Amino acid sequence: MTEKDVVIIGAGPAGLACATRLKEIGVNDVLLIEREKKLGGILNQCIHDGFGLHKFKETLTGPEYIERYLQKLINYKVEVLSDTMVVNLFPDKSMILSGPWGREKIKAKAVVLAMGCRERTAGAIWLAGSRPAGVYTAGVAQRLMNIDNYMIGNEVVILGSGDVGLIMARRLTLEGARVLMVLEKLPYSSGLPRNISQCLNDYDIPLYLKTTVTRIHGKARIEGVTYVSLDDEGKPIPGSERFIRCDTLLLSVGLIPENELSREAGVAIHPVTGGPIVNDTYQTNIEGVFAAGNVLHVHDLADWASMEGELVADFAKRYLEGSLPQTQNWIEVKAGEGIRYVLPQRISGKIDVNLLFRVSFPARNKHIVIKDKDRIIKRKRVINPHPAIMENIEVKRDELKGVQSLEVMIE
Amino acid sequence: MTKEMVCILCPNSCNLIVTQSDKNPDGLKVENALCPKGKEYAHNELFNPKRTIASSILVEEGELPLVSVKIDKPIPKSKIFEVMKEIKKAKVKAPVKIGDILIKNVAGTDANVIATKSVDKI
Fold this sequence. Notes:
The complex is a heterodimer.
Chain A: E1 2-9, H1 13-24, E2 30-33, E3 49-51, E4 60-61, H2 62-75, E5 79-81, E6 85-89, E7 94-99, E8 102-113, E9 117-119, E10 135-137, H3 138-146, E11 155-159, H4 163-174, E12 178-183, H5 193-200, E13 207-208, E14 211-217, E15 224-229, E16 242-245, E17 248-251, E18 255-257, H6 260-265, E19 289-291, H7 302-321, E20 331-335, E21 339-343, E22 346-347, E23 353-359, E24 366-372, E25 375-382, E26 391-395, E27 406-410
Parallel strand pairs in A: 1-2, 1-8, 2-5, 8-19, 10-17, 11-12, 11-17, 12-13, 20-27
Antiparallel strand pairs in A: 3-4, 6-7, 7-8, 9-18, 14-15, 15-16, 20-22, 21-23, 23-26, 24-25, 24-27
Helix pairs in contact in A: 1-2, 1-7, 4-5
Chain B: E1 2-6, E2 15-20, E3 28-31, H1 37-47, E4 50-51, E5 54-60, E6 66-71, E7 75-76, H2 80-89, E8 91-93, E9 101-103, E10 113-115
Parallel strand pairs in B: 5-8
Antiparallel strand pairs in B: 1-2, 2-3, 4-7, 5-6, 6-10, 9-10
C-alpha cells in the first residue's frame, strides 16, 4: 500500500494553499486529491472579482485566484490526483480512492480535510409545495450559467440574501433575466454590504427583510411563489401572504461543511459549526487528522480559507516531526453570551492562539471579553459586530498561563 | 450635504460618510474609509460612477463551452449593458489563455475584455 506523509482531501482555496505551503516548508511527500477534473473547487465558477485582497493584495476573479496557486503547484511539482474521489476514510488514516484508473487503498501519516461545504437545499429549510423544475440553489445556478452555459430562467425570485444569491442576482440581470426580488427571513442581510450595493441597488432589485417563501406553485415548472412577512419572532403574519409569478426560484440559504468522510472516520463534529471539533493545532479528535477551510467552518472570504490551509500545513509538518504541543489538560473554549461559536474549541495553552468567532446578532459598539471564570484575560472593542463577519482575537501564550477554561462573550 | 455610501472596492465594505460643501464642490470630506481608495471611490460615485464587470464568452472547440472574462478597467455605470451586448455577441476559438485580450476597446469605453481563465482545445 502506498504511504504518503500528508494527504490533502480537496483542492479548493484551503487545500491548494496547504499543499503549496507544505512544499515551501520542506514537506515533499504530499498528495493532493480532488474529485473534479479541474482543481480550484467552487472558485472556478465564481467569475466575479473580490478575491485575493488579503492574500495577493489585489482584487482577482475566482479563476484568477486559483491560477496563482496552480502556477505554484506546477513549479513545486506537487503530486495531484484529480477526477478522484476519496470514498472511504478510516481512523488509521488509510483511505480508498476511486478514479478513472480504478480503486486503490492508500495510507497517510497526516490527513488534511479540505472538502469545503455544500449548499442548504429546499428540504433543509422545510419549503412546502411540489418540486417543479426551476428551483435551484444559488451555487448550482452559478455553475450552470458560468461553467456549463445554460440560462436558467427569465423571471427570478431569490430566497435568502447570502453572498452567492446576491452575486447571482447581478449575474442574471446582466444576462437579461429579470430579478423580481430578494427575500430574507432575518431582519438583516447575511451578505456583504458591498454586494447589497453593487448587486442589488445598482440594478434596482428590491430586498425585503423579515419575509420568506411559504409555497412554491406549479407542477412541471415553477409558476410562482407565495411569500409572507414575518413578525419579530420569525412567525408568518396572518393575512400578509402575497403571490408573485416567476419561472425560477433561487435559494441562497446557507452553507453546510461537507463532513461525510470525516464522520465515517470517527471525527467529532461540532453541532454549531457543522465542522470538526479542533484544538489549537487544528487537529481533530483523531491524531494526525487536521481540518482547514470551509469544511471546518464557513468563512467569509476565500482568502481566510487559504490562510487556514497554510496554518494547518505548519502544524502538519510539526506533527510529522513529533513537535506539536502535548498536554493532558486541554483548556475548553466556550462560546458565551452573544457568541455563536468559537474556534478552536480546545487549546493547549502552550502556543499563541488566534480565536475565531461569530456573534449571534448584529449590534453596535460592543466589547468582546475573554474570561477564565471571573478573571478577564482580554477585551476588544468591536464597532459593528455582525453574524456575517468573522471576528478574531489573538491570545498570547503568556496570557494563557494558569488558565483553566476560556469563555468568549459580548458585553 | 452629507451622504452615506458603501464602498464596493473590496469585501471590507466600508460605510463611507461623504460630506460635500457648497463652497468647494470638488473638495469632499470622506470619513470611515479604511484605505485611500475610499475617497477616490466616493468622488467617482458622486460625479462619474464606474463599475468593473465580469461575464463569460462562448468558446468554439474548447474543453469548456465558456471562458470567464472581465474588463481590465472600470467603465461608466451607464455603459454596462452596452458592454454586455458586445460580450454576448463575441465568440472565440480555443485555446484561450488567461490574460488574453478577447475584445479591444469594448463599446468604445477604452476598456478591454480579457480572459480570466485558460481554456484548452479539445
